[in-house]
Amino acid sequence: MDEDARRLESWLNKGMHGSMKYMENHFELRVNPQKLVPGAKSVITLLINYFPSQSQSASGPKISKYAYGKDYHDVIKNKLRSFLQMLREQIGEIQGRGFVDSAPVLERSWAQRSGLGWIGKNGNLINKQKGSFLFIATLITDLELDYDDPLAKDYCGSCRKCIDACPTEAILPDKVVDGSKCIAYFTIELKEMLIPTGMNGRFKNWMFGCDVCQDVCPWNRFATATDEIEFTPLYEVLNFTRNDWEQLTEDSFKKIFKNSPLRRTKFAGINRNLKFLSHGEQEVLETPLL
Length: 290
Ligand code: B12
Ligand code: SF4
Ligand code: SF4
Fold this sequence. Notes:
The mean pLDDT is 94. The protein has twelve helices and nine strands. The longest helix has 20 residues, at 72-91. The chain is of the alpha+beta class and 290 residues long. The chain has a three-stranded antiparallel β-sheet, with helices on both faces. Strands 2-9 form a two-stranded parallel sheet. The chain has a two-stranded antiparallel sheet with strand order 4-5. The site of one iron/sulfur cluster has 12 residues, from α6. The site of cobalamin (B12) has 36 residues, from α1, α5, β6 and α7.
């Protein structure tokens, strides 16, 4: 993965991972799956559609579609386990490890190499039939397979809708996304108490993640709703108004969102984001969020 290694190195050197320290770790493993899974011969990439059947009510602070239902890490880990089990039943004793978002794996690059789509200017893996509201899962195995051809074509063409629409100018030329400027980074990954004041007024009501660069993408115009029952949107995600969020207690947050991706920021993170949206100012919390 020489070209990927070069791109990743440059991204890290420019500090585009912000405070996501985990991105600095295991560089060698990230660009070489044989170091991550000794004996690896194949990378199997799977996609799962998370485009929801219902939309959020217009009055509430916005939540990214990937977080409407049950946490995808849990849902997909179970599916990967069953998939590996099924392969073992049919093929014999093979070794394999499944990953989703949680390990040093360049998931988008492998999806592109598996022929499942191209990497758009907004950095996302886009499938011509399904769009980009897709999670990526990866199974690295010692099973030798007939390899698919990488998708050679890029269907972005001269479009630049995502670049123009990004509220924080995080999308740079050459398919580089500056993670440290992305609303998803500030609202989910940033563990500090303060969102930089330079971002005041730029979040367009996004409280958790951001879908702008995918919502404007013409390839998502025909996205169809997922049939994965576990991704069924929570009532509160769809219907909570700003006032409901502001009145929410920590106990209720823990109960309602116990299986949701929203757990990641914890209650304190949601409150920080809400305050930032309301006033562009935050209180200094005494302890880090994570
Ligand atoms: C760190 C991270 C973030 C960070 C940084 C984002 C970023 N651009 O890297 C933040 C928190 C901002 C983030 C946001 C989001 N994320 Co995120 N994130 C990740 C994570 C953990 C690592 C990504 C990474 O390695 N970044 C480093 C950069 C350098 O790598 P990269 O962006 O993948 O770019 C590579 C390719 O683009 C390739 N490439 C591009 N062009 C070319 C051309 C050539 C010739 C070659 C060879 C290679 C190449 O080079 C790069 C290096 O290999 C992955 C999971 C994983 N393990 O992969 C999920 C992942 C990328 N995220 C995902 C999602 C869903 C999101 C959000 C949509 C969530 C949201 N709505 O809020 C946003 C989208 C923001 C955006 N436009 O990218 C999905 C993407 C699914 C898809 N269809 O693409 C992933 C794969 C998780 C998953 N398992 O489903 N994310
Ligand atoms: S997710 Fe939002 S902030 Fe991040 S790159 Fe896309 S449009 Fe920009
Ligand atoms: S909005 Fe246009 S440029 Fe951006 S990813 Fe979609 S097709 Fe490509």
